[in-house]
């Protein structure tokens, strides 16, 4: 009986597998997206042009006017934000075509009938006037307005409007090519008159053109059935007689120095113990071998599939293996977890099966029959295999799991069949890549937390999907229909294809891992003296201040690479300065109760010191007036000195301790307060934008740079220069202000920017830094007193002008910042937001 059951189980498994194979073999190739109708539609002018007599043909007049202007915000409103590069010119080329016809010309009837408009509009216009091409990356598709007809007793004029948006570098030339009419035999219009209004450009070269009228703001010429071209140069750019190659570049030198410092601190942040573990060394070797494959898309596009396999298959497998070797226990996944995962897979699979039905890969009956047979047979096979266990719950779960696996396998097989034929849902590839890439953060979080967590798996999958695009991009109406050709979004010169997004996601995940390392190491107070922790903190700070801003040439290919800003180096130097200053010996409290005793002793000592000063102040007058004898004065003085000797003459350091809290706890508190104080200034710099998670996070770095300094302040508070919260905050102000202003050095020395604009920029930066740092110092003073159970008024009273000096200064600077912000012009706006106003070295 047992052998019969096994035979039945294997037979049902083969039936299920056979149903999947049958559906895959029977699937038909899906027809690709229909080509634009303008390509196949008949030319609406051809028949009418052939019927026209020679008199009507020679009476036609074709006039073209080309206007080159700067693209406005309204023109760029529909352009994806990631495609716009503020360091380049956005050019709008508007082309107006006028075709003047006599009343008896049959072209008028053809034009009014519209033969295939708007799909054949481009073909119709090019057949009469010829195509006009503009060099440079397109910011969007060419747009055409509907033809406008104006008729009177003598003639009819048709007006066609074409708009092109281009993006060119600041020193790049703009070339306009005027192609011949596509209706070559015979020409619909024998001669064409063309006028070019260059605007902010100057005509540099003419090819095949003899001008009829040549002015600075207008160039007119006539052309027949042959191509011509012209080249424009920007008015605001001068060409050097001799281009000298710089033997030394500060940008390159600073970039190399920053990269070396960052690499040194990164290696140091891992610590010797980390390198001594074999699994860690294997991971580094594996990643080092995988890294060169990321350059394959730059040098050999035919082998780009290797990069995809390495990044989305090999690297996830490597990290998963590393996590399995490092973690002490296996993943605690249960059958319920497996059912949930396969259930989600079935949901995605049903989407694929729906696509197969809607686009005719398989008929509805075939899909229902094949899916039902595969699922039922798989469930029956699971029941036959597990029936001898005698546990109903296990049998049911295995049968459901098998049915779900069969449906998922069917969907996967049909997807692979569609992939082989080249027609598939476009976002299905990104979905598979995202799910493969999600294994990396799952393993990384497990290693960082030393345990496998279901919540980490869910979060990693969501983050992986966001790395490959925002929900608006995933839910686009065309994402799950048919693959169509559309440009990828860009950040500067960087095309955000799945590979680039995956690499940027890895960099973002590496940064998060450094922060998690600070959390793990910051659970004990001794961490603030650990060189590994200090190196990790400086690495995080340097990464936040790295600013990409250019490209380099690698193997004759223009490769976008970060030209590392000086701010990263300054952040390194100022952080080291903050943490390496002289500091007195501090008795750190281990508990809140010890902290409370230290603060109360410090308050008592302050009271004695103030009393001693008061005794000398009033004693001078009272002794002189005879109200106090010298004996009384000496008695009181000796009593105070005895009390002071009892408390010790060394400086009190109760306000320079960690207050019984861990470094991580203090760092998070300081970061939160600094972030809240920084948020109002987002109105000055603008809210971050991006086409996916990594670009959004990168664009929002300015929101967390100052809070990162606040995090350093709280994390290493006992080591920061100074002995009181406000003195430490003033040292923090100096460090943060120097770092923030260093990013505007090249702009502040730019002679083309007025001193008032420069003063406004400095005022805004100084106001923000003072507001954050002084506010953080006041909060820390309150926090220390609050943790000690003492009122804040005992160290800072609102009735004292001296106590209000620091907050008053912060408020005045914040008010000045607000005024400067409200009066800031376009130049200040571009400086703060990193536009091309700054003169970056070429």
From TrEMBL:
**Keywords for this protein:** Membrane, Transmembrane, Transmembrane helix
Key word Transmembrane present: yes
Residue stretches spanning the membrane: 248-271, 283-300, 306-326, 338-358, 364-387, 394-416, 428-448, 455-471, 491-516, 528-547, 559-579, 668-688, 700-717, 729-749, 761-782, 803-824
Q: Which domain of life is it from?
A: Bacteria
Name of this protein: Uncharacterized protein
């Amino acid at each position: 009986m047992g052998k019969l059951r096994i035979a039945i189980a294997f037979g049902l498994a083969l039936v299920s597998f056979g149903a999947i194979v049958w559906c895959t073999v029977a699937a038909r190739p899906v027809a690709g997206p229909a080509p634009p109708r303008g390509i196949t539609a008949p030319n609406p002018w051809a028949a009418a042009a052939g019927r026209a007599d020679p008199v009507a043909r020679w009476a036609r007049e074709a006039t073209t006017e080309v206007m080159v202007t700067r693209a406005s915000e309204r023109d760029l409103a529909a352009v994806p934000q990631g495609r716009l590069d503020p360091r380049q010119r956005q050019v709008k080329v508007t082309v107006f075509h006028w075709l003047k016809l006599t009343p008896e010309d049959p072209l008028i009837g053809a034009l009014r009938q519209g033969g295939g408009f708007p799909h054949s509009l481009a073909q119709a216009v090019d057949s009469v006037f010829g195509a006009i091409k503009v060099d440079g990356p397109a910011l969007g598709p060419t747009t055409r307005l509907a033809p406008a007809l104006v008729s009177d007793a003598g003639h009819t004029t048709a007006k066609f409007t074409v708009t092109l948006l281009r993006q060119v570098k600041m020193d790049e030339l703009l070339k306009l090519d005027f192609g011949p009419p596509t209706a070559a035999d015979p020409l619909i219009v024998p001669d064409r008159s063309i006028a070019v209004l260059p605007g902010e450009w100057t005509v540099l070269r003419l090819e095949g053109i003899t001008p009829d009228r040549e002015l600075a703001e207008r160039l007119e010429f006539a052309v027949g059935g042959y191509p011509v071209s012209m080249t424009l140069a920007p008015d605001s750019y001068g060409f050097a007689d001799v281009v000298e190659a710089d033997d030394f570049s500060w940008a390159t030198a600073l970039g190399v120095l920053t990269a070396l410092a960052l690499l040194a601190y990164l290696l140091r942040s891992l610590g010797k113990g980390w390198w001594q573990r074999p699994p860690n060394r294997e991971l580094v070797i594996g990643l080092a071998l995988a890294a060169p494959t990321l350059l394959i898309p730059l040098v050999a596009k035919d082998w780009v599939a290797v990069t995809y396999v390495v990044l989305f298959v090999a690297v996830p497998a490597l990290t998963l293996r590393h996590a399995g070797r490092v973690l002490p226990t296996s993943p605690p996944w249960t059958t319920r977890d497996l059912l949930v995962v396969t259930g989600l897979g079935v949901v995605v699979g049903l989407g694929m099966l729906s696509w197969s039905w809607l686009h005719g890969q398989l008929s509805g009956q075939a899909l229902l029959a094949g899916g039902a047979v595969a699922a039922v047979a798989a469930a029956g096979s699971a029941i036959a295999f597990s029936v001898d266990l005698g546990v109903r719950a296990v049998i049911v779960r295995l049968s459901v799991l098998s049915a779900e696996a069969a449906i998922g396998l069917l969907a996967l097989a049909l997807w692979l069949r569609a992939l082989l034929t080249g027609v598939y849902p476009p976002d299905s590839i990104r979905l598979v890549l995202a799910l493969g890439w999600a294994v990396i953060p799952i393993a990384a979080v497990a290693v960082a937390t030393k345990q496998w967590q279901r919540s980490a798996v869910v979060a990693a999958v969501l983050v992986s999907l966001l790395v490959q695009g925002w929900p608006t991009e995933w839910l686009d109406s065309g994402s799950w229909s048919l693959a169509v050709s559309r440009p990828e979004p860009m950040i500067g010169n960087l095309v955000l294809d799945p590979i680039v997004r995956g690499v940027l996601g890895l960099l973002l995940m590496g940064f998060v891992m450094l922060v998690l390392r600070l959390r793990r190491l910051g659970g004990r107070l001794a961490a603030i003296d650990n060189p590994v922790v200090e190196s990790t903190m400086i690495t995080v700070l340097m990464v936040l201040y790295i600013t990409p801003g250019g490209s380099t040439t690698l193997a004759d290919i223009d490769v976008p690479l970060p030209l590392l800003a000086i701010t990263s180096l300054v952040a390194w130097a100022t952080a080291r300065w903050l943490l390496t200053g002289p500091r007195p010996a501090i008795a750190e409290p281990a508990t809140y109760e010890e902290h409370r005793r230290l603060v109360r002793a410090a308050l008592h000592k302050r009271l004695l010191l103030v009393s001693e000063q008061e005794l000398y102040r009033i004693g001078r007058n009272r002794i002189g007036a005879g109200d106090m004898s010298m004996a009384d004065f000496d008695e009181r003085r000796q009593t105070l000195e005895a009390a002071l000797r009892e408390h010790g003459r060394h400086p009190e350091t109760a306000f320079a301790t960690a207050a019984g809290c861990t470094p991580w706890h203090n760092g998070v508190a300081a970061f939160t307060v600094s972030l809240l104080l920084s948020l109002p200034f987002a109105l000055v710099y603008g809210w971050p934008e991006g086409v996916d998670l990594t670009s959004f996070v990168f664009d929002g770095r300015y929101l967390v740079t100052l809070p990162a300094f606040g995090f350093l302040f709280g994390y290493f508070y006992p080591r920061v220069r100074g002995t009181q919260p406000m003195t430490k905050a003033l040292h923090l102000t100096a460090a943060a202000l120097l770092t923030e202003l260093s990013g505007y050095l090249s702009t502040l020395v730019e002679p083309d920017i007025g001193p008032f604009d420069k003063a406004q920029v400095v005022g805004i930066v100084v106001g923000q830094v003072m507001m954050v740092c002084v506010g953080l110092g006041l909060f820390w003073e309150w926090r220390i007193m609050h943790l000690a159970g003492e009122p804040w008024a005992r160290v800072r009273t609102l009735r004292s002008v001296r106590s209000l000096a620091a907050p008053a200064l912060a408020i005045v600077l914040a008010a000045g910042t607000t005024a400067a912000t409200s009066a800031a012009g376009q130049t200040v706006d571009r400086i703060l937001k990193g536009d091309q106003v700054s003169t970056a070295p070429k």
